[in-house]
# Entry
Amino acid sequence: MAQSIIDPSRLERIEFSNDEIARYSRHLIMPEVTLEGQKRLKAASVLCIGTGGLGSPIALYLAAAGIGRLGLVDGDTVDFSNLQRQILHGTKDVGRKKLNSARDSIREINPNVQVDLYDTFFTSQNAREIAEPYDVIIDGTDNFPTRYCSNDISVFLKKPNVYGSIFRFDGQCTVFAPHMGGPCYRCMFPEPPPPGMVPSCAEGGVLGVLPGVIGVLQAIEAIKLIMGIGETLIGRLLHFDALKLKFREFKLRKDPKCPVCGDNPTITDLVDYEQFCGIPEAKAAEVEEALVPTLTAVELKAKQVRGEKFVLVDVREPFESDICRIPGARLIPLGELPSRMSELDSADEIVLHCKSGMRSARALKLLQEAGFGKLWNVEGGILAWSDTVDASVPKY
# Structure
């Protein structure tokens, strides 16, 4: 039997109303849970970083289960593109702070839960102050600076970190807890990948129900740690393939040379995680990449109205063009551009666009290097076209 992370002395002051007994009755009649286990849940505090795809099922199920205190960290607002997977939020919440709609949903599920809101992003400046009061830290984010930050503060504070990640049809889950004999995130990934190498869900997409599976697994692991039941995922990584509907398990070992939890750690305090993950350099590269001849969407429309002669090239993928397109655009995906340059005439004036302007800026650079001279990039891409020229064009 696993040992609960909750000090037994904290259970002495825990009481339940008759309504709570009825609410949790299906727990109380389980011999693995009983009133003792439910008291541990009520005595426990969990910090959930992020209230998006993973944070939604995590927060909802932990609240329903009877966690006494739930901390939510998020500085974002609800967008239409969130609703396909972020079930804490509804259509009426678009434009609201995610924390506010999350709080309202949790109160509807279980008004007995204390909900603490942190309207910010989790960084080295606030991580220790936010995380210190909680028993378990759950990472529900999809960016590397936060993952390394949540890992490191969990190691320093000796708190279990329940990790989950999702992308397209794949997800994974584990528990990092060096103080309980397992590895930490840096044991798996001592260094982050180069910026842009691993796309986010916003860039690569995610099956809407996938975070429901992984988020629920994270909630289960938190509950097991609190109750002290079953075998946790400490030292095991669970991978889920939604297309094949298969789970695979991989063993994880603590790295004695880990810079944070190893025998001779070299990182003993929080660092600048954006700097560590190369975010400033990536932003500088984006700025440099953006220093190309540009047209606004309104200027592009004016050129069309005037009947000017130019070639409009869309460098998005075919499935993106199926969603929406600018009239008259020729589709040449960025990845195919080097082999299809012969389809373009260097004597022509060429205007390039993509979704937001970044890929088309890279396409413009490729054409410049190949000797093309009359080139323009549509600033803001088809999103700007939708915002400023034709609102009937859907945004994705």
